[in-house]
Amino acid sequence: MLRVVLRASKYGRAGLAGTRLLSSMISYEKDRAQELIASYERVKAACDAACKETNVNRDVLLLAVSKLKPASDIQILYDHGVRHFGENYVQELIEKSKLLPKDIQWHFIGGLQTNKCKDLAKVECVRYVETVDSLKKAKKLNDTRVQGAPPIHCNVQINTSHEDQKSGLSDEGEILEVIKYFLSAEAQNVELEGLLTIGSWKTSHVDDPCVDNEDFARLAQWKHKIDQALGTNLKLSMGMSADFRQAVRQGSSEIRIGTDIFGTRPAKGDAKII
């Protein structure tokens, strides 16, 4: 059965008016709302089609990657029914979380630095950290999670393309060490969600969506090995604008789409939250 998680709802009473919103004081322009909602619906329809073509019978989350985009863009999609948003920079996520509705489920999907784990863990509505690539970082997230907040769902990032510029683990011993920590009694404030990878540019831009992405195939192999060894049932996060069709077909439970929804991003130095 086809299901893409968090299908868009009908417009709220504020709808596209952009003057009085349901859940915050952040305003937006009607034209921008129409443009952004149309883009989101186009991407969602493409994701639905990819699931249908491959007879997917699992939930596939369409994660709207909002990095370097203003809070008003997120508010537009929030009012449209979207609740999951991905951010790449810790401070940007923190500032947006202060302005936007508290039931947004933030996903951190950027390069994770050990000294930023505490800052992330303090934000109660950070529900997912998808780029854990060391035991030290896993422990730091667990030990500094704000008291009373729900556990953080974590993905272990694996560098399946073996590119030096990419983050992620590739050593089997290190991967299993982190996985076992998440499964241990010590990890009270973090929960293992699955595995994440970013395919190489070359494998992600194959013209034929029926050709397997070899980086995604490696992540699926890691899932099989870990599930067999430890009795888990890990989810896979893989696939972006150029390669989400392969990702869905090869087992992904989450695809991360930014530019195709929000449009071209500004340079980091030019980005504004408000």
From TrEMBL:
Its cofactor is pyridoxal 5'-phosphate. Keywords: Pyridoxal phosphate. Pfam families: Ala_racemase_N. The keyword DNA-binding does not apply. GO terms for molecular function: pyridoxal phosphate binding. PANTHER family: PROLINE SYNTHETASE CO-TRANSCRIBED BACTERIAL HOMOLOG PROTEIN, PYRIDOXAL PHOSPHATE HOMEOSTASIS PROTEIN. This is Pyridoxal phosphate homeostasis protein. It comes from Zygosaccharomyces bailii (strain CLIB 213 / ATCC 58445 / CBS 680 / BCRC 21525 / NBRC 1098 / NCYC 1416 / NRRL Y-2227). The lineage of its organism: Eukaryota, Fungi, Dikarya, Ascomycota, Saccharomycotina.
